[in-house]
Amino acid sequence: MMEHSQEAFDAARRVIPGGVNSPVRAWSNVGGTPFFADHAQGVKVVDIDGNEYIDMVLAWGPLILGHRDPDVVNALDDALAKGTAFGVPTVLETLLAEEVVAAVDSVQKVRLVNSGTEATMSAIRLARAATGRSMIVKFEGNYHGHADFLLVKAGSGASTFGNPDSAGVPQSIARDTLILPYNDAEAVRTLFAERGRSIACVIVEPVAGNMGVIPPEPGFLQAIREETRKNGALLIVDEVMTGFRVAYKGAQSIYGIEPDITTLGKVIGGGLPVGAYGGKAELMDQVAPTGPMYQAGTLSGNPLSTAAGLATLKKLLALDPYQVLSERTDHLCEGLEQAAKAAGVTVTVNHVPAMFTVFFHPGPVRNFQAVKGSDHQAFARFFHAMLKQGVSMPPSPYEAAFLSVLHDDTVIEDLVRKAREAFKEV
Ligand code: KE4
Quick one: CATH architecture of 3-68+321-423? Predict the structure, then answer.
C-alpha cells in the first residue's frame, strides 16, 4: 500500500524537479513510486503508509551506527540546546578535526565543509593551486559529486579528453578532465608517460561505490600513487563513502596508499550535512586564510553536524566494529549468492566491509563497462521483489548497499531468507 507516498510524490513533483532533491531518490533506474519516509530507528525505516523496511540505503552511507543512534541523538540534543549556528569558531570543530587527524595517518590538517561535493571540488582547487597545473584525471564510473569539472564522461577510447556529462558544463571546463578506465594500471602509466607533467592531480575512489561496489585490483592504486609521485601530480583519494566505513583509518589503510589529499563526508557527519578535505599541514596551509587558495562556507563546521559526527566517530573508535562488519558482509553476500543460485539466477556480488552490490552479471565486474553490461531489468525486478519482502535496497545498479553495526546475524539471516523469495521473482 503506497497511497500516501503516491500523493506525496505527485505533490512534490509539482514544486521540486522530479519530486526529489537528489536524482537517485526518484527511482528512475527501477521504476515505480518512491516511498516517502516517515521515521526510522536502528535498521528499520517506515514510510508514510506505515510500511516497514530493513534499510540497506542508510542515507547513502552516513548511518553506519543505524538510524537515531542514542549517543548521536543525545549529542544533537545537547548541541541544539546551545544553538544551531554561530558564524564564529566553536570547540566542536576542533574536536572533530582532531578525531579525523588522529584516525587518518595522511591527514595533519583538515577543513570541514558541507558536502562531499564541496570537499572534492576544494581538494581539486588545492591541487591546482599547489602544482600550478590545470589537467585532472578521474576514472570512468567514479562519482565525486557534481562540480562541473567532475561531471565528465569518457570520450571514446581509454585516456581521452572528457566530454560534458551534464547540460550546463562547458566543453572548456570538461576538456581539462581526463578519463581513464577503473582498475586499468597500464592506462594510468600510459597517460602519465604522455602527459604526466601537465597533470595537477588524480582523484580516485579507493573502492568504487558509485558504479556499484568495485574493489581496486592489486597494483591499481599503487600505480596511481607511483605515477603521480614521479610526475609531481597530487593524489586525491576520495573517501567520502569509504571513510570510517571500510576501516576506521579508511580504505587507504587497507590498501596501503598515502594520498596527498583525502576527502571525507557521510559518516563524519553522522547523518547531518558534512564534507572535509585534509592532508599534510604544509599543503593545507595554502588554504585561506593562511594561504592563497580560497574556499569558504556559511555553515561549514556547524555545531549540529560536528556534534553528530564527533559522537559517531567516538562510538566507532570505542566499538571497533570493523572485523564484525567485515564478517557479516561476507556472510550476507555468500547468502545472497546462494539464494540467487537456488533460484537459477546469475549474479556477481562485489563487496568490501559494510558495502556491497548485487550485479546481474556472470562476472567478473571490475569496471564501468561491465556494470553497463549487467542486466538492469533483472536488477529492477529484484529491487521491487525485495521491497515487497520489506527490504529497501538502493534503487540503482550503479549504487552501493550499506550495512550498519546493527545489521546483526539475525538481520542478515532475515535478509537472506527474504532474498531467497525475491530471487524467485527475477
Ligand atoms: P555529496 O555532495 O552528495 O555529499 O557527496 C558527493 C560524493 C563524493 N564522493 C563520493 C565517493 C560519493 O559517493 C559522493 C556521493 N555519493 C552519492 C551516493 N552514490 C550520494 C547520493 C546522492 O547523490 O543522492
Answer: Alpha-Beta Complex (3.90)
